[in-house]
Amino acid sequence: MPIMLRSDRCVLYGKDETELAKLGECPLDPGGYFVVKGNEKVIQIQEQLLNNRIIIEVDKKGNLVASVTCSAATLRTKSIIVMEKEKIYLQLNSFQTKVPIMVVMKAMGMQSDQEVVQMIGRDPRYSSLLLPSIE
To answer: Of 28, 36, 55, 128, whose CA is between 20 and 30 Å from 93?
Structure first.
């Protein structure tokens, strides 16, 4: 059974530089790989974000970003809500530019700014976040 070099199951584990040198091992080798039939093998970890889950993070510019990748059998879309300079925008993989959130809400059939605020809720925290996007 292959054992990861320098893991707690490896014979090199806990050896100091002189002991490693006596064993013919480089003391600077950090380990973390396997030797199989004389060849080094590395396990590469690949991260894939979950589909249909909202992920909230801060981007490189310091903007708050909420994104979701929706997957169905034949279609996959990514929707991103960005708060940039206190204004909220929607970004879709089919658009090149960000769309102001108020334009999106009105395109969905809401007639007035007041109706948008009512749909989002009367909680002052939400209305204060939305206010710069209305102006």
So the answer is: 128
The residue with tokens 């002052």 is 124
CA distances from 51 to 55, 56, 81, 124 (A): 10, 14, 16, 31
Which pLDDT tens digit goes with each residue over 34-74?
999 889 999 888 776 677 889 999 999 999 999 998 888 78
CB-based contacts of 133, cutoff 8 Å, min separation 6 = 87, 88, 100, 101, 102
Overall number of domains in the chain: 2
Residues 23 and 81 in one domain: no
Task: Note the helical H segments in 3-76.
Answer: 17-22
Under DSSP, the state recorded for 90 is: E
Task: Judge residue 122's burial from the number of C-beta atoms within 10 Å of its C-beta, 0-12 exposed, 13-18 middle, 19 or more buried.
Answer: exposed
Residue 62 and residue 128 in one domain? yes
